[in-house]
Amino acid sequence: MPTPKQSRACLATTRVFPAELRPGLGVVALWLAALALMATACKKDVALEAMESDANGYLCLKCGVKLFTDRTVFIGPQCPKCQQETLMDVVGYECKKDHHLTIRPKRGDRQPLACEQCQGPLVNAMRSPREKDLKAWGAAKASS
Ligand SMILES: [Zn+2]
Ligand SMILES: [Zn+2]
Question: Taking Cα atoms as reference points, which of 40, 90, 46 lies closest to residue 65?
């Protein structure tokens, strides 16, 4: 059974505590917001840079035609050139040694994964090819 004196003390603590905490929380919240912003910015630089692209690349496993479309345009699996359903999405693998981007179909490719340029291994090197990479690879823009 608390004495009246003790409960008054308790009340005083609860009244004072939040008021003292509020500015502190405000600073913490600001910090968290800033950290979140920084984290998003970092992610954008690293992860998005690696996985986001401005284009989709395609390779026909039958006739070998290389195509690309805008990021929002998807074609396949029917190849616009040979009409076979063998048009595959492509992915890029960046060589750690010479930074050459090797572009390969996502599926249906049985060749061992190696850098086109130096034949080095491409481990954990997946990167979405961008429009300029696909153009350098020899892809033509698909007419939609
Ligand atoms: Zn084809
Ligand atoms: Zn290489």
Answer: 90
- Number of folded domains in the chain? 2
In sequence order, the β-bridge partners of residue 102 are 93
Asked if 118 and 134 sit in the same domain, the reply is: yes
What's the gap in Å between 118 CA and the centre of ligand 2?
A: 4
The whole-angstrom separation of Cα 125 and Cα 19 is: 52
Q: Find the ligand nearest to 79 CA.
A: 1
81 and 43 in a common domain:
no
The domain of 18 spans 1-49
Say yes or no: 36 and 70 in one domain.
no
Question: 82: CA distance to ligand 1 center in Å?
Answer: 4
* ∠ Cα 80 86 87 (to 5°): 55
Cα 54 to averaged position of ligand 2 atoms, centre (Å): 24
Task: Report how far ligand 2's centroid is from the alpha carbon of 97 (Å).
Answer: 5
> Could you tell me the distance, in angstroms and rounded to a whole number, from the CA of residue 20 to the centre of ligand 2?
60
pLDDT tens-digit readout, 81-134: 999 999 999 999 999 999 999 999 988 677 788 999 999 999 889 999 999 999
> pTM of the entire structure?
0.64
